[in-house]
From TrEMBL, chains A, B:
Keyword DNA-binding among UniProt keywords: yes
InterPro entries named in the record: FUR, Fur_C, WH-like_DNA-bd_sf, WH_DNA-bd_sf
Origin: domain of life: Bacteria
Gene Ontology cellular component terms for the protein in this record: cytosol
Protein name, per record: Zinc uptake regulation protein
Organism listed in the record: Acetobacter pasteurianus
Length: 186, 186
DNA sequence: GAATGCAATGTAATACTATTACATTTTCTC
DNA sequence: GAGAAAATGTAATAGTATTACATTGCATTC
């Protein structure tokens, strides 16, 4: 029907461009992939870039919308495949309670590529604010150590963990009547 | 079109009957509700009974199927409303990673109604076996204490927490080439 | 530099999970 | 019994994720 686009080379050149600081984080992510023998394609880079652009967790279908250009209208599998890749390589996290995704905090804040290591790939801990929806990744290792200890006792082999704490961040808590965790018995 | 059924009194008499040991657990749950000024209706009792009948986490739509009788074909809101009630009263838990529900382990194992208390209402911890899908609720309080400590430092007000550990249970681990939690760096 | 094979992507359809909005019925309280 | 609140019924829709299969891009080998 239409004139074909110039063999679009979807995996060759990114469709999106981002602010310099995001591009820098994307370059860092790309380096990490290369180092692991994984391919950071244009598609995956676009998705990661979009996630990095958000201050809050973003849903798969939001990303799908943002991926649309004049030339391309990706379908769900496109974004889910990219998300799977990024998850597998520890570049993003999925917030289970929100069915949404955030960049790994290390991409934003660490200058050293090997920090966090294990503590971030298949295990992470988050503080989720109900009010402003901000999610903070916490770096603590005590919780994981405790879980490891418990699981060792039960001969349970840990493959991944998720810890999600929901409540009010400091900012929002100061604006609200305090609703703490209630105490009731079963 | 059809003859109306005898004013079915949906909230009066349970539509389902369960084995004696399940009925006993349901009675316990009912007592807890009463004690809290909450109403354990027939609908809610049916849903809880069905959940207790399962050895593994069960999805909302599975329950919906199981709720169907010759007389009634409940719609999604019916089961979701019952689930919300049961969650709010700490009688069941939602496993986020599975979008599925399990009974609170206390219903099965505790003779004392006030055990666990807080540790079970809005906070719980689970070991999820990838292989056999069994979910075990763990009773440890150390993790929650640690999280509270962390949050106190950040002035984050905790309202609820979830800890999900995914891997292989002892039984399944013994049948498999060990796939531990990998170590890679970001 | 064709042939081969695998990784990545495109595309359409469908499955699964959850909520909204509004009508009706039941239960509680007075 | 009247009125209010809680619970349920019902239809439609929203939101999230996967399956299955065709096609393309890319790397290796001969
Ligand atoms: Zn991380
Ligand atoms: Zn906040
Ligand atoms: Zn519990
Ligand atoms: Zn198992």
């Amino acid at each position: 029907m239409n004139m074909p686009y110039p063999t679009s080379s979807s995996t060759a050149t990114p469709t999106h461009t981002f602010p310099a600081h995001i591009e820098h984080q994307l370059d860092k992510a790309t380096a990490l992939c290369t180092q692991q023998g994984a391919r950071m394609t244009a598609q995956r880079r676009d998705v990661l870039g979009l996630i990095l652009m958000h201050a809050r967790p973003v849903g798969a279908y939001d990303l799908l919308e943002e991926l649309k250009t004049a030339e391309r209208r990706p379908a769900p599998p496109t974004v889910y495949r990219a998300l799977d890749f990024l998850l597998e390589h520890g570049l993003i996290h999925r917030i289970e309670r929100l069915s949404a995704f955030i960049p790994c905090t290390n991409l934003r804040h660490c200058s050293h590529t090997h920090e966090h290591s294990e503590a971030c790939l298949h295990t992470a801990q988050f503080l989720i604010c109900r009010d402003c929806k901000t999610v903070t990744e916490i770096a603590d290792t005590t919780v994981l150590e405790t879980l490891k200890h418990i699981c060792k006792n039960e001969n349970f082999v840990i493959q991944s963990t998720s810890v999600e704490v929901e409540g009010l961040c400091a900012d929002c808590a100061s604006k609200h009547p305090t609703k703490e965790l209630p105490h009731q018995g079963v």
